[in-house]
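May I ask you for just one protein sequence along with its backbone structure tokens in two labelled lines?

_____
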Amino acid sequence: MQKRLNDLLGVPGGSSAPAVSDTTVSRVNGQAITLYQQLWQVDAEPTLSQMEALSNIERDQADISKRWNEFKNSDLPTLNRLLHDANVPEINLNTEAKYDESQGDEE
């Protein structure tokens, strides 16, 4: 289960890291950030290569979403049963993240 999650999310370096060509959340996120930064640096229409990059990001994002839903619907319930049996809190994806607003950006 850990390997499947690492293959989906991506892991930093090391021998267990997915190949560079694998689609992971980390990789797609990094590509989207890079493209966003390129687009906002200039006051011009996107180039052909940037539009192609956007298409690739959208395709990879659809693949990641599909794989995430598969993990969420098959592996997560199994993991939660194991956690429940071990008297450890289960993973609830519907819980809103709580954070301390005082630590936010004060602009």
